[in-house]
Write a structure and sequence with these properties.
Elements: E1 2-9, E2 14-21, E3 28-36, E4 43-48, E5 53-58, H1 67-82, E6 88-93, E7 104-105, H2 108-115, H3 125-138, E8 144-148, H4 158-161, H5 167-171, H6 181-194, H7 196-199, E9 202-208, E10 212-218, E11 221-225, H8 246-254, H9 260-269, H10 272-277, H11 283-288, H12 292-316, E12 321-325, H13 326-331, H14 333-342, H15 352-357, E13 370-373, H16 378-392
Parallel strand pairs: 1-6, 6-8, 9-12, 12-13
Antiparallel strand pairs: 1-2, 2-3, 3-4, 4-5, 7-8, 9-10, 10-11
The structure holds adenosine-5'-diphosphate (ADP).
Adenosine-5'-diphosphate binds next to helix 11 and helix 13.
Length: 397
């Protein structure tokens, strides 16, 4: 028995969750929270399992708090709270490349191989890895486990992962990987428990948050997904463009004379819902707005979900169930309703009352497709893997 810390480190935020593990069995949630605004004026908030705030702190610029000092501070607080050493730390690592499918215990060799993948996810991977290094610097002997966003998609057929570029590029890793895999693995696991019949069939899960993607699952395994080589591909997102004709990118370089950095910023930070609405990347603000551009951005978001659902239903050879998850998927009945209307040709029919109440099943009894809302829990999935790996290695007591 011991405590596991799960970390999801981004460029300006650090999400964390603490779990108690029996070694085998479901880890128990103890606390969770996040530090936001890192690099400017960091703000930490932590809640216990009932949602009660148990810690809050703000740092000013004068404190010169860095990712490293904040993580060391967090570890110290958590060790104090727990009263003994943690048994392990599980990390969300965005890219496992072609080598890493399953979660792995981190050692020097693994870290070097993950470092080599930074060019494939330059905006995320370096932050994930610096959190691993920061924990090592404070507690070198604490076991650390990496769980990969790409891992769940690893067994997809070659036809789903290949890009139509010269073969040599595929060999060096320029191919479709897919992301949000930790979330989809959790959804597949939950579905297997609550609805085994459906989970054994053809399912599309929609992870709709600031980042958004769809995953086609057959018998609980990913066979296709909308994100590809990077997390820019696929659906319209909060600030990311989604699938784009590469010719449009060439135009930005050749005709607009934009630099690589400027194009990267445009595609990752100024596009998507924000770019189209000119108002916000936040779905709540867009739903509440009367501005026609806000409505247009929501319509485009929904249009592409429906369009890509058609594509993935084709990859699956039909569709038995559709699952909504993540910030928008779980909390925006308006978006679920608009998506369902566009999917009515597939046999999707939702019960608007169940949809508004966020019932677990929101489809009508006569709907050909079962439509569910399942809250995702990436941190729990990381805790489950970390506990399993530690138990396997015999380090969990
Ligand atoms: P991330 O990808 O950063 O983890 P989340 O999964 O938290 O993001 O999703 C964030 C998105 O969810 C934002 O667009 C936010 O507006 C949206 N969202 C959260 N709550 C609601 C709500 N009640 N109604 C509509 N959208 C919501």
């Amino acid at each position: 028995m011991g405590e596991i810390l799960c970390l999801n480190a981004g460029s300006s935020s650090l999400k964390f969750a603490l779990f108690a593990s029996e070694g085998s069995g479901e880890p128990q949630s103890l606390a969770s929270g996040k530090i936001e605004n890192i690099g400017i004026e960091p703000h930490l908030v932590a809640h216990d399992a009932s949602g009660k705030t148990i810690a809050e702190q703000r740092w000013t610029k004068a404190d010169k708090a860095t990712h490293e000092t904040l993580l060391a501070d967090l570890l110290e607080r958590i060790q104090k709270q727990v009263g003994k050493d943690l048994i392990g730390v599980g990390h969300r690592v965005v890219h496992g490349g072609m080598d890493f499918a399953a979660p792995v215990r981190i050692d020097d060799d693994v870290l070097a191989r993950l470092d080599a993948l930074c060019p494939l996810a330059p905006l995320h991977q370096p932050h994930n890895l610096s959190a691993i290094r920061a924990v090592r610097a404070v507690q070198p002997s604490l076991p650390q486990i990496a769980c990969f966003d790409t891992g769940f998609h690893h067994e997809q057929p070659a036809v789903a992962t290949r890009l139509a570029l010269p073969r040599a590029l595929d060999a060096e890793g320029v191919r479709r990987y897919g992301f949000h895999g930790i979330s989809y693995e959790y959804i597949a696991r939950q579905l297997g428990e609550i609805d085994p019949l459906v989970s054994g069939g053809r399912v599309i899960a929609a992870h709709l948050g600031n980042g958004a993607s769809l995953c086609a699952m057959k018998d609980g395994r990913s066979i296709d997904t909308t994100m590809g080589f990077t997390a820019l591909d696929g659906l319209v997102m909060g600030t990311r463009c989604g699938a784009l004709d590469p010719g449009a990118v060439l135009y930005l370089f050749q005709e607009k004379g934009m630099s690589t950095n400027a194009v990267e910023h445009l595609l990752y930070n100024e596009s998507g819902l924000l770019g189209v609405s000119g108002i916000s990347s936040d779905m709540r603000a867009l739903i509440e707005s009367d501005d026609p551009h806000a409505k247009e951005s929501v319509d485009l978001f929904v249009y592409h979900i429906a369009r890509q659902t058609g594509a993935l239903a084709s990859s699956l050879g039909g569709l038995d169930a559709f699952v909504f998850t993540a910030g928008i998927g779980e909390n925006a009945p308006e978006v679920r309703s608009l998506v369902a209307q566009r999917l009515s040709w597939l046999g999707v029919e939702i019960d608007e009352d169940a949809n508004r109440r966020r019932a677990p099943v929101i489809s009508t009894s006569s709907s050909r497709i079962t439509v569910r809302v399942i809250p995702t829990d990436e941190e729990r999935m990381i805790a489950i893997h970390t506990a399993e790996l530690l138990a396997h290695a015999g380090t969990a007591s």
